[in-house]
Here is the input.
Amino acid sequence: MTSRRREFLKLLGLAALSVQVMPLSGCASGEEPAPADSLAVTSSLNSKLGRWVYHSHVLYVPLQLFREPPPDGATLSTTRTYFHSHRVELTRAQLTAIARGDTVQVADLSEAHTYSIRLG
Here is the structure.
């Protein structure tokens, strides 16, 4: 019984240490390079898991989408943070509104984060 308890406590300690080290190891925020000719938009800090895991993502929107919005809009992926990313859909109407100077608020498909998208 003592051996099992010791093993459990050891694993619990490693798990706690992992959570503390993740931000230092680069797992907490993706340091992905910005694609050329794109708009970088940082998400809200929300997390469905609670305040202790608040984090953000960066959504890179190619500027070409504003110059020539596709008829079906576009689905883009965010940078990875805490081992995950999100997908964001932008409609043609939203892309057109942003191109004319409006600010568009959009949530990712999981509704975990929001993005306020504006040119300039």
Remarks:
- The beta strands are 38-42, 58-62, 74-77, 87-90, 104-107, 114-117.
